[in-house]
Design brief:
- The complex is a heterodimer.
- By secondary structure, chain A is mainly alpha-helical.
- In chain A, helix 2 runs parallel beside helix 10, helix 8 packs antiparallel against helix 12 and helix 14 packs antiparallel against helix 15.
- Chain B has 3 domains: 146 residues, Rossmann fold (3-Layer(aba) Sandwich), CATH 3.40.50.300; 57 residues, no CATH class; 66 residues, Alpha-Beta Plaits (2-Layer Sandwich).
- A 6-stranded mixed β-sheet of chain B has the order 6-7-8-3-9-10, with helices on both faces.
- Chain B is elongated, with a radius of gyration of 24 Å.
- The chains are: A mainly alpha, B alpha/beta.
- Chains A and B meet through helix 1 and helix 9 of A and helix 2 and helix 3 of B.
């Protein structure tokens, strides 16, 4: 096992360029796992509202009381400068003016121009308040149209808008109960391809160096043995890297994978093979370490941005996604999205996507063999 | 009768229109230090590569130890040690690990390998550098490491392809002494070089190559006998009268005489006492002279006379 041992010794000298990727990724994963819980909880947002009731009628006060139920009311001097300062310094989120004649015009069936709002930014809360006020006026108008008088219509509207509906989200079983875990598998391809290109590629280049190859070919060791030991050593490296990420995943998950998570594990293993064959292909060219580093960035970042690793697929244009289909990471992400519940799950499609990844690996292997055959031009037979 | 270790018969190797080897034949006997001498591009390395089946060839036959050589002739390869022109070692491994690795390609038994590696280290004198990485070694030490990697498994046939290129004189002598020692221990050696002095120093038989052809073959003396020149006499003399040159030219065995204003050069073919006769002519004409020296023909003279050009440029 001389070749295997030499491979490992050379690899040991290259670990310094691989470990930062693994360590940084694991640190980020740990940080994501500790922050992930906050995303799962809903917190109601309370706005700070100032109401200028120019109408000052029971109907206008009823509206003010309704708003006060879920928001904090503050008083301001009715002066434009004061109002603008307050909005600018966010001591108040919204200023509502109930126009003079509000109740009369509401009773007359008018719904436009009854209320005026001022706010400085368009937050979800402000939009929600605008929607609530519009809905309030329209609902009162609807009850009145149904035959109720104004006070009855206001009472009915308050009851209607106070109703709460209990919603239970029934979702399919996902691969994990934590969102961070799906992100863990989503970002994995970038790290795996970076580690393979920075770790495996330079070692293979050393082992295939022309002068060393000549010396090996002169020796009595069989070429099949050299190839076999190199393959075995490469497989050991790929397996070790993949295993590190899986063990880290189990630890960060707080337990062994379950259900569909195993499909994600299989998907990552297949992508590791694709990354390994990419590294083997790159190693077939005589390039320097700097060029390998450049290629790592181009392939790693390129695939990550185009294929939905760094940017969710939903945010990518159809043109980009069409181009991404020609890259293996696209099919990894598609499978991962299905497994993690981002897309509707289809076992058949997941298998198809994984099959396409394997086809990429096979294609890379064939291209590598062709390039090496052309390059080495080694004498296998003597022609007479 | 000596056994034939290497037999090359009618080897032809083409690179497109270029004929690198043109019906090249060779026979090397056991125990020889065989020199393959020729200028750069004459086909020495191509011959070695074909011999080792690193390169396919168009025509011909190669036998080593009486067996047909092929890329899969592992039984032949186990007895061959190769030291290439370039230092072929792992920069990432230490001196010891490198020698152990290359020895391990031939010897799988760990104890036997350790013994061989230790012997090779002692032989090339790298005992003090075992844990050094190649990048920390000087050029001479690197060459020694390169040799240790090629001979650790104790091959019967050692092929050295220009092993002293860019090596300081001290390391060069050490390497040449080492090769002679290996030969004394029983190894047959093939040594390629374009340094004629090295080939003259260590080779028992020599083939001179040019443009892919063998232009001469034999021992040093046999090769030198092939040419007309047997002795070149040079006399430093100022103001030599014109009539002296014809007088010297008429001396027995002199076939060429030249005067360049300060040196009289006389080329002789055979015969004895040539120097005395030349000096006698000068004394009779009452001419005083400075330094006098005589040179025997070199392999460069052999090459020059056969091909009309020098083996290597002066700057080499």
């Amino acid at each position: 096992m001389q070749v295997f041992k030499a491979f490992m010794k050379v690899l040991r000298t290259r670990l310094s360029s691989v470990l930062p990727y693994i360590i940084v990724f694991l640190i980020i994963s740990v940080m994501m796992s500790t922050m992930g819980g906050a995303d799962e909880k809903f917190t109601a947002t309370e706005m700070t509202v100032c109401i200028f009731d120019e109408d000052d009628t029971p109907e206008s006060r009823a509206l003010a009381e309704l708003i006060a139920k879920d928001n904090e009311l503050v008083e301001l001097e009715n002066d434009d400068d004061v109002i603008l300062d307050s909005l600018y310094y966010t001591s108040v989120d919204m200023v509502l003016t109930i126009s003079k004649g509000y109740s009369e015009r509401l009773a007359a069936g008018e719904t436009e121009g009854l209320l005026t709002t001022k706010h400085i930014h368009d937050s979800f809360a402000v939009a929600y308040m605008d929607q609530l006020l519009s809905e309030y006026v329209v609902t009162v108008d609807s009850y009145m149209a149904a035959g109720q008088d104004l006070s009855e219509a206001i009472a009915s509207t308050e009851r209607t808008l106070s109703q709460e509906t209990e919603v239970t989200v029934v979702s399919e079983e996902t691969m994990s109960n934590s969102e961070y875990f799906s992100n863990y598998f989503r970002y994995l391809p970038y790290i795996i391809i970076s580690v393979m290109l920075n770790g495996l590629c330079p070692v293979l280049m050393v082992m295939a160096r022309k002068d060393l190859r000549y010396r090996t070919n002169c020796s009595s060791i069989r070429l099949s043995s050299v190839s076999g030991q190199t393959f075995l050593a490469s497989a050991a490296f790929v397996g070790a890297v993949w295993l590190i990420f899986m063990v880290a995943g189990v630890i960060l998950n707080g337990g062994l994978f379950s259900g569909r998570a195993w499909l994600a594990v299989l998907n990552s293993l297949i992508f590791s093979l694709v990354a390994a064959f990419t590294a083997i292909l790159v190693s077939s060219f005589d390039v320097s370490d700097n060029v390998v580093s450049l290629i790592t960035q181009i392939i790693g970042l390129g695939m990550s941005f185009l294929c939905g690793i760094f940017v969710p697929m939903e945010m990518l244009s159809s043109g980009v996604l069409t181009a991404a289909r020609f890259l293996p990471a696209y099919w990894y992400v598609r499978a991962n999205n299905m497994i993690s519940g981002v897309e509707a799950f289809s076992g058949r499609d997941v298998m198809l996507f994984m099959g396409i990844e394997l086809a990429f690996a096979l294609a890379l292997a064939v291209i590598t063999l062709l390039i090496r055959r052309m390059k080495y031009n080694r004498a296998e037979s003597v022609t007479a | 009768m000596e056994n034939t270790v290497v037999k090359i018969d009618g080897l032809v190797k083409r690179y497109g229109d270029l004929i690198a080897l043109d019906h090249f034949s060779l026979e090397i006997k056991e125990g020889e230090v065989f020199g393959l001498l020729g200028p750069n591009g004459s086909g020495k390395t191509t011959t070695i590569n074909c011999l080792l089946s690193l390169l396919s060839f168009d025509k011909g036959d190669i036998q080593i130890f009486g067996k047909e050589m092929a890329p899969t002739s592992y039984d032949i390869k186990k007895d061959i040690g190769v030291i290439m022109q370039n230092v072929a070692v792992f920069d990432e491994l230490t001196v010891y690990e490198n020698i152990d690795y290359f020895c391990g390609l031939y010897i799988t038994d760990k104890a036997e390998r350790k013994k061989c590696v230790d012997e090779a280290i002692r032989f090339v004198g790298l005992d003090d550098f075992l844990k050094f990485k190649p990048k920390k070694l000087s050029g001479g030490l690197l060459r020694r490491l390169n040799i240790a990697c090629g001979i650790a498994h104790k091959p019967k046939l050692i092929i050295l392809d220009e092993p002293t290129v860019a090596v300081d004189p001290q390391s060069r002598n050490k390497i040449l002494e080492g090769i002679q020692e290996l030969n004394a221990k029983g190894a047959t050696v093939i040594y390629t070089s374009h340094y004629m002095e090295e080939v003259e120093q260590i080779c028992t038989r020599i083939a001179i190559m040019d443009k892919g052809k063998k232009i001469a073959e034999g021992t040093k003396d046999q090769l030198k006998r092939m040419i007309k020149n047997t002795e070149t006499i040079t006399v430093e003399v100022l103001g030599l009268p014109e009539e002296i040159v014809p007088q010297v030219s008429e001396l027995p065995h002199v076939y060429d005489c030249r005067y360049d204003g300060s040196r009289l050069t006389v080329c002789c073919s055979g015969g004895k006492h040539n120097l005395i006769r030349v000096l006698d002519v000068l004394q009779k004409n009452d001419l005083s002279f400075g330094r006098v020296y005589t040179e025997l023909p070199t392999l460069n003279d052999v090459f020059l006379e056969i091909t009309g050009k020098a083996l290597r440029d002066k700057e080499d």
